[in-house]
Amino acid sequence: MIKKKVLLLGSSGQMGRHLVRKLTKNNYKVICQTRNSHKSVFLKMYGSIGYIEIVEVNIFDEDKIENLISEVDICINLIGVLYEKNKNNTFKKIHVDFPSKISLLCKKYETEFIHFSALGIEKAVDSDYAKSKLDGEKLIRQNFAKATIIKPSLIFSVSDSLSTKFLTFLNILPGFPLYYNGLTKFMPIHASDVADLTYHIISNEIYSKDIEAVGPEVLTFKEILETLLRLIDKKRFLVPLPTFIAKITSRIFESFPNPLITSDQLRLLKYDNISSRNGLTNYDINCPSKISFEKGVEKYSYNWRDGGQYSVSKKEQS
Ligand SMILES: NC(=O)c1ccc[n+]([C@@H]2O[C@H](COP(=O)([O-])OP(=O)(O)OC[C@H]3O[C@@H](n4cnc5c(N)ncnc54)[C@H](OP(=O)(O)O)[C@@H]3O)[C@@H](O)[C@H]2O)c1
């Protein structure tokens, strides 16, 4: 029997897939908003029959978005961009204006609202991404006090755009740049742990909280790269890059369609991405993360090892 109806805004991404599985398995009906239903038809494989519906809606179509929100019990906003692509995909439109609008609609229809922001954005004052995520949080808090905001550190899984991109570059390049000497700290969290946290928030009716979503360990940027190299049995030069050269290269990268790093991401990378001293984390609400970075990536790293699925890692050989 269907418990509640959940609207997933931005369902085609990494968290969308994990949440479709988690929620439909637990008898929640999920309405998956996407801007391209043909590209998102794969989501049907993740959800139980009768518990998933895919709707193609432009997020700037206010009437259609209002209609969707009015018909569900819970709305989860997963829409986010790492860099600005065109005039419709600006940080302001995606991270500020859109969440502000939907928080007002959720208040109007008494729909529970869970919004995905990001960790460590308070200190990153010179990053446009961080500033826009923070402005979005502030407006949501003003508009709808009952909203819950999830603030994740790096989310990783086979469908992420971080570990998989790094694995691809580490596989083909002789070396890899260490920005800020590789010292920036992260608490990577597996996407299924974030899905468990979201389900925990819904099923325990946790409202009006900002919850930092962090993994079980603190790793520096350098340690993340070393872990990835170990998992694909490769040796590469990790080269500390002087900041002025990093700035020039990130300027060049950002002209490519799927850049390794943009100038704004370079500025963001200066700041540690770890739980804040006074913040509430998933651990504080009895929802600890179960999967370490190494154990999580090990499950899909064979794709980048010589021999692919038939490869045997050095660890397995010994
Ligand atoms: N992944 C991380 O490490 C991380 C860390 C901190 C915070 N977060 C936040 O957590 C949320 C979920 O992350 P994720 O990893 O699932 O992100 P993701 O895989 O990049 O998915 C983002 C979703 O947003 C949609 N989207 C982007 N621009 C859009 C637009 N202009 N109109 C409509 N839809 C648009 C994408 O649709 P298309 O597939 O059609 O592009 C996709 O479904 C995001 O808000 C992100 O900022 C993520």
Task: Provide structural commentary.
There is one protein chain. With 318 residues, the protein is α/β, with parallel strands linked by helices. It has a domain at 5-156 and 188-214 and 274-290: 3-Layer(aba) Sandwich (Rossmann fold), CATH 3.40.50. It is 37% helix and 16% strand. It has an eight-stranded parallel beta sheet, sandwiched between helices. It has a two-stranded parallel sheet with strand order 7-10. Strands 8-13 form a two-stranded parallel ribbon. α1 crosses α6 and α2 (62-70) packs across α3. The longest helix has 19 residues, at 91-109. It is globular. NADP nicotinamide-adenine-dinucleotide phosphate is lined by residues 10, 12-16, 35-36, 59, 78-81, 88-89, 94, 116, 118, 152, 154-155, 160, 162.
Summarize the structure.
The chain is α/β, with parallel strands linked by helices. It has helices at about 15-25, 60-70, 90-110, 130-145, 165-170, 190-205, 220-230, 245-255, 265-270, 295-300, 315; strands at about 5-10, 30-35, 50-55, 75, 110-115, 150, 155, 175-180, 185, 190, 210-215, 220, 235-240, 280. It has a domain at about 5-155 and about 190-215 and about 275-290: 3-Layer(aba) Sandwich (Rossmann fold).
